[in-house]
UniProtKB/TrEMBL annotation:
SUPFAM superfamilies: SGNH hydrolase. InterPro entries: Ester_Hydrolysis_Enzymes, SGNH_hydro, SGNH_hydro_sf. CDD domains: SGNH_hydrolase_like_1 (cd01832). This is SGNH/GDSL hydrolase family protein. It comes from Pseudonocardia yunnanensis.
């Protein structure tokens, strides 16, 4: 079972007939599972998963749940690490109480993939660090029942080929890398993984240069403008904070006419 946002949905790995595949289907095939319940939703935040996706997940009594969520929270002006921790702990705690093995994602430095203006880049990086702190804290409560895939350490994770045109979602290759990483964690936890995930792209839809350009014009630039407005107050606060914290430089000039 998969809970989370658009990465959990499979965005970035389109199928020829429409829709998305993504790491959930690739991981299902690696496990040889007959069913996959994917409750992921584009735009989902941690609180949404807790309120909307978790209740349905608990009724299904899954053996394994992949929780991929949090980046949308970092891109909002109401970002709150304490609330994130409360929501994440509630989600994972409820799943573990049912005996479900939980896989989580520890995020990479997204500013190395998605180029942003310097003030926005610094603000986003600090939030990713805070989000990872939440993931670490929740995972530490039950190391035997929680596996964490660290995207910062994923081989090839910062290569251009791992990312779709928007630089926010994994490409087909990126989704294959995620599926392979999760499969390895499950194998280490004692789950049977009879069919290794191939990193060779196959079965997806090729994205053309025209489609990439169209995305940038129709969706990419408007998205960046919306996020800039939403995070504008955060950027200003960050810049003011840096100026306040920056130590003053005092220059003492000696009067050449003065006696030594």
């Amino acid at each position: 079972m998969t809970l989370g946002d658009s990465t959990a949905v499979g965005l970035g790995d389109p199928l020829p007939g429409g829709g998305w595949r993504g790491f959930p289907m690739l991981l299902r095939d690696a496990l040889g599972a007959s069913t996959l319940l994917n409750l992921g939703c584009t735009g989902a935040r941690m609180s949404w998963v807790r309120d909307d996706q978790l209740p349905e997940a608990l009724t299904a009594s899954p053996d394994v749940v992949v929780l991929s969520v949090g980046m949308n929270d970092t891109l909002r002006s109401d970002f709150d690490p304490e609330q994130l921790h409360d929501d994440c702990a509630a989600i994972v705690g409820a799943l573990r109480a049912e005996g479900t093995y939980v896989l989580m994602v520890r995020y990479h430095d997204h500013t190395r993939v998605f180029r942003l203006p310097a003030p926005l880049r610094r603000a986003l990086y600090r939030r990713i660090v805070a989000l990872n702190g939440v993931i670490d804290a929740v995972a530490a409560t039950d190391p035997a029942g929680i596996g964490v895939l660290d995207l910062d350490l994923l081989p090839g994770g910062y290569e251009r080929s791992a990312w779709s045109v928007d630089r926010l979602h994994p490409s087909e290759r990126g989704h294959r890398m995620l599926a392979a990483g999760f499969a390895e964690l499950l194998s280490d936890a004692g789950f049977a993984v009879p069919y290794p995930v191939s990193l060779e792209c196959a079965g997806g839809r090729e994205v053309t240069a025209v489609q990439r350009t169209a995305w940038l014009v129709v969706k990419g630039v408007p998205w960046l403008a919306r996020r800039g407005r939403d995070l504008g107050p955060v950027i200003v606060q960050s810049l003011v904070g840096e100026l306040v914290r920056r130590p003053a430089t005092v220059v003492i000039r000696r009067d050449p006419t003065a006696d030594c």
